[in-house]
Inverse folding.
């Protein structure tokens, strides 16, 4: 009798992690594990972790703590910790959580099948946390359409018609608050031919939208001395846009210092390139930006925003902001609020600064009190919410090309999709297939979404 083996994957953190989880799921599929959304049923559990902020890391430890009971009940269960916490903690992880069987860093995910087999045979800790400066992202062939998919809110998967494609990983920028250079290592870019082959394959399987992923996609192709190892990012975008079947191209994340005139021009010339730009600013104060080692001033940042809006007036801009960075005064914080008013972002992710291991800022001695950070975050989010609502109201009366994602969670008979500018739209319609593009007249702009009618 063939007893089905089951794998459960839970993902924390960024889209890079989501894509890595998808790859790990596909590799476990090749080992004949089927996906499950119930971790109690699983024979293998993979927790793909994030350590970007203190809170993200605490969530990981709390889940791992809960897994102890499961392992007790089922000693053959293999618990793997992947991702940035695995990289950061290494062997220390098992010292804290002795029920962990596999610790696997972001550069090593391709070794998961081998480690799962070894853990099953030998029953002792398997570790793969090497981080090499010369790392080459392996060529990875996507699965066939019938391949494994992990579908639940908690389990990694992106809808079948839109996919993430990793084009580079790692980071050379060393912002003083950021753990990423220590968990994901130095920047390394995939060769364009692999990327194009992967996207062409996805397009043949019915994928209509791709998001090109990397910690800093603007420096795609460059090596540490700034010279070009592969083609440039704008060149890559042009090549991706020639792939038949792909209708929408997005990318994330970008560093403002690397936003070139050539890339800005792509928004005018590449029709499939969606008019949405996530451009993390982090702070509105030049003094704080300097302490963060961001290598741009607010004046330069605003200049690039103006250039983007000149070539694509309908572009939506989103950002990341940290409040309470060490030494941030009320005046610095006011400068960030002013920046929100000047740029009027369509959305902003905002966070309280937290100390991260190995970073420079951990040693800064002018930390901001927790209470002050919380208060600043509250004020900032309130201000940004007002702006988000105003921005969404600006869509009222317009007709938007919406790519259907699926049935709306809000109400029966409603469908949900996204504008080219990445805003969620809910609208009444008979059944529609995900990935289809329809025209929707926007009737109402809400805080986090738009409402409309299909025309
Ligand atoms: N504290 C708070 N926020 C942080 N981020 C990165 N590191 C930290 C930290 N130590 C935020 C930044 C980044 C986003 C992904 O997370 O805003 O852009
Ligand atoms: Fe989190 Fe950064 Fe690692 Fe992504 S790369 S999982 S955001 S720490």
């Amino acid at each position: 009798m063939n007893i089905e083996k089951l794998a459960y994957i839970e993902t924390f953190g960024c889209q890079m992690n989501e894509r890595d989880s998808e790859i790990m799921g596909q590799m476990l599929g090749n080992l004949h594990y089927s996906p499950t959304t119930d971790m109690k049923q699983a024979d293998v559990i993979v927790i793909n972790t994030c350590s970007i902020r203190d809170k993200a890391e605490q969530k990981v430890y709390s889940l791992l703590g809960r897994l102890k009971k499961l392992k007790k009940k089922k000693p053959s269960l293999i618990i793997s910790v992947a991702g940035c916490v695995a990289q950061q903690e290494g062997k220390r992880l098992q010292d804290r959580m002795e029920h962990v069987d596999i610790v696997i860093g972001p550069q090593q995910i391709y070794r998961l099948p081998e480690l799962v087999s070894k853990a099953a045979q030998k029953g002792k800790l398997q570790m793969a946390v090497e981080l090499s400066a010369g790392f080459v992202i392996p060529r990875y062939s996507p699965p066939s359409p019938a391949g494994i998919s992990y579908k639940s809110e908690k389990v990694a998967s992106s809808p079948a018609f839109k996919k993430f494609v990793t084009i580079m990983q790692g980071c050379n920028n060393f912002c003083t608050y950021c753990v990423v250079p220590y968990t994901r290592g130095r920047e390394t870019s995939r060769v364009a031919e692999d990327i194009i082959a992967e996207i062409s394959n996805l397009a043949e399987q019915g994928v209509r939208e791709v998001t090109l992923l990397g910690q800093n996609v603007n420096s795609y192709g460059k090596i540490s001395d700034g010279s070009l190892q592969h083609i440039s990012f704008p060149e890559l975008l042009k090549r991706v846009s020639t792939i038949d079947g792909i209708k929408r191209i997005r990318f994330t994340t970008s560093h403002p210092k690397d936003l070139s005139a050539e890339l800005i021009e792509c928004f005018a010339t590449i029709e499939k390139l969606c008019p949405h730009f996530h451009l993390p600013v982090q702070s509105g104060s030049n003094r704080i930006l300097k302490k963060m080692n961001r290598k741009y001033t607010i004046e330069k940042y605003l200049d690039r925003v103006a250039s983007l809006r000149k070539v694509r007036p309908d572009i939506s801009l989103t950002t990341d902001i940290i409040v309470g960075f060490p030494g941030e005064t009320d005046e610095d914080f006011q400068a960030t609020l002013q920046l929100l008013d000047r740029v009027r972002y369509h959305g902003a992710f905002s966070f309280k600064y937290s100390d991260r291991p190995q970073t420079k800022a951990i040693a800064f001695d002018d930390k901001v009190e927790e209470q002050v950070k919380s208060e600043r975050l509250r004020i900032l989010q309130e201000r940004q919410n007002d702006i988000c609502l105003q921005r969404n109201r600006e869509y009222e009366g317009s007709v938007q090309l919406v790519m259907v994602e699926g049935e709306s969670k809000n109400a029966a008979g409603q469908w949900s999709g996204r504008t080219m500018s990445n805003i969620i739209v809910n609208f009444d319609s008979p059944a529609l297939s995900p990935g289809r593009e329809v025209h929707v007249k926007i009737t109402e702009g809400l805080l986090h979404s738009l409402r409309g009618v299909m025309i």
